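=== RUN LOG ===
request id: a7f3
mode: sequence -> structure
chains: 1
length: 299
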Amino acid sequence: MGCLGRLGYRYLVSFDRAKVINGEFASSTPPEFLFVCGAISQYLGAALAYSLFDDIGTSLVATLRVIGAACVLILLRRTWKRSVQELDLAWTALFGIVLAGMNLCFYLAIDNLPLGNAVAIEFLGPIAVAALGNRSFKNLTSLVIASLGVLFLAQVTSEGTIAGVLLALAAGILWAFYIVLGSRVARSGAHLDGLGVGMLIGGLMISPTAIASIGNAFESPLLILVALSTGILGNVIPYGIDQVVLKRITKTRFAFLQSLLPATASCVGFIVLQQRVTASEIIGISLIICAILLRGKED
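=== RESULT ===
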């Protein structure tokens, strides 16, 4: 288990330890750094999940990823000891359904659309939340700069289908709702336990979309285990970090900091995969950094 995995384990295992981590580590660590840690884990999980699409189907991978993450989180947190009132079940369930739907729509989008196009379209969701939450000149200016940075990183092309565009738009809308609902869950008594229960409910809700691929699952039981494990990297760690960060900052600033995700993806590609960094990617990363520095810690 790597450093990031150990960190995720430490603050997810018990409620008391979570208090210590939140009080000592999470509260003193810049949210930008936590975002980058979560993004690295999320993109590693996404890369692993993407490699399974052809073998067991996109919808089944998305479903297993969410359900696998939920089971891990519930077991680590011993969520069954929490009462229904503490879990704030109605909002937790809605949050989980939105999260699972967002995962599914994005996976289906990148199956019908180049990744850069999907990222650029989906990013409209957090942009809307950030713009509506704070309409100051400084905020709107930094949003424009960050959006330009994402477009440079996304390297949008004319390829793809109408279905892919609509699915990416749906993922963006659900991303916006994820931020709003995630902020509520993070500040309620549910917190990380709500994340686990919510993902379980959400995973079960999207499971009917995977029925057509069940036959492939029986042919490749090992791949099913791999798909379930993608939930740790792709969901447990990054969404767990989101819950920690959402307790500290407003959903407006959280939405703005989502621009760090595509920038982190490019850096991971360069460092880990030794991919060549293009001029447009350097410009994109620079614009996002400038936007974050311009906006600062406003609200």
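=== NOTES ===
The chain has one domain: 3-295.
The radius of gyration is 18 Å.
=== END ===
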